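Table S2 (continued). Query chain:
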Amino acid sequence: MKNKILTLCVALALGATAISCKEKTKEAAEATAAEPVAETVITAKKYNVDVSNSTIEWKGAKPTGEHFGTIGIKTGELNTEDGAIESGTIVIDMNSITALDLEGDKKLNLEAHLKGTVAGKEGDFFNVNEFPTATFKITGVATNEAGKTILSGNLKMKGIEKNVSFPVTVTSEGDSLSLVCETFVIDRTQWKINFGSKSVFDNLGDKFINDDITLTIKVKATKA
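Corresponding output:
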């Protein structure tokens, strides 16, 4: 009888752990097949992205710690209809990848590795010589059951295009527009960024790098 009770307790504990893990990954943006890009209607208001006041914050982790930094936006435009985001494109400058948690040679070495400007390691991460930019093209906007605005778009990196969705807050004042997304997670291996991934390579031990990359997008734009 005691063994049966023990078995039941273990099963319940494992079930609770599984539910907890699922809850923690709700923020993950599932990468799906690319979708048709949203068209811009004639009456839409166009806003040009203010690249000097817009950024993408990133964070990556491994068993021994984490790194974080920013990536700049090269160009972009957002189009609205009746005050709501309707379409748009953001071009990301992959050469601008910056690590903010390091200094000196460690900082420069990590940035060079991420960019792929180190001989023999070009393809480990983003390979900026071959793929100097990434793009995000809006495919749709919807409101979920919680009343949040969900922005969907095709994210293209290293020549691979996947559709992702995440919650955003859009505000406007005068000729200015602000778009800030809630922090979300993508699986880098969906774009063949496989270096150090234990889901791709065997026998890495504790020398692996997590597949998840945490992103926060902050965009400021001005009416054209």
